[in-house]
Amino acid sequence: MVLRGYVPTSEETLQTLAALRLQSLNSDFSTHAPFPRLEELFPPHVLHARLPPPPHRPPTKCRGARLRAGLLAGGLWGQALAKQRAERDQRLRGRLREEGASTMAAIVEKWKLLQGMGRPEAMAAYVALVREWPGFGSTLFDVDLHAVRPRLGVGQGQPWPWATLTPLSPQSPVGSGPQRLWLGIGAKAVSLYKPGEPEPLDSFCYGRISSFGASDSSTFRLSVEDRDLLFETSQVRGCHPSTLPSPRVPQTDPLCPLYLQVDEIAQLLHTYLASAGAQRLPRPQEPPTSSPTSEPTVLPQGLCPAAEPWQHRPPVGSSHS
């Protein structure tokens, strides 16, 4: 979860998590201790984000200009451009190695500060640090939110047309066009996050969800009170995401069955909705004369307890010298 970039936090905290992982694996710092690769300790996408973006070349509109560009690409100009690209790629690889070495050095310095911390304590501090994120424990999916529309305008049995987005809530406006989001499905609520943002754009208790279902192999509908949300997910051919190094780079092992994200989304929602419904039912073993206060508390529909702001606290033992 951390290495896939699904715990939005600062680089400082990510380095602390990497140091705690080293402490749990190797105990106190030693030059003879085995060092895992950096990508096994630190999210690679953070390092790649430091690199400058590739130069953008505007598309050639004129057909004649495109033809001339194609002819030049096959001659001396093409060789020069290929050489420039190779040199740029080499510089980027060198920059990436420098960033990786700098990050590893910072992680090692934090590892040295954990001297004397036992393996169970390091593991507990690691988990406690990750649990500070309100979305901890949720299953996250990369989705494109295509439509948010009133349910009254939806015809029965009619296909879903793409629609302009309306705000999820007054506090979290969403612009027009598809929005790349994280769909977080947890035990208490379904939440929508902007990738990399710790606080959700919106969160829906299961009491607010009236229905859900898959339109096809890549689109999923979620009905929340008076709104319908339409998501598009990726169809992943390969192993289940829990076995993949990254959800954005699916494996293509023919021995792995076809995996559909919409299937797992539906299964998780069904499980959590059934659990939430069971918790609302009165317990059969309770006597009929039991006080109403002994019944489980049910929040009114439309209310969902807001998650507290995520505040980073240093792990225990991080100040050891």
TrEMBL record:
Record domain FERM: where: 1-270
Region of interest called Disordered, as start-end residue ranges on this chain: 278-321
Coiled coil: none
SUPFAM superfamilies, per the entry: Second domain of FERM (SSF47031)
Pfam families: FERM_M
Entry-linked PANTHER family: AGAP003327-PA, PLECKSTRIN HOMOLOGY DOMAIN-CONTAINING FAMILY H MEMBER 3
Name of this chain's protein: MYO10 protein
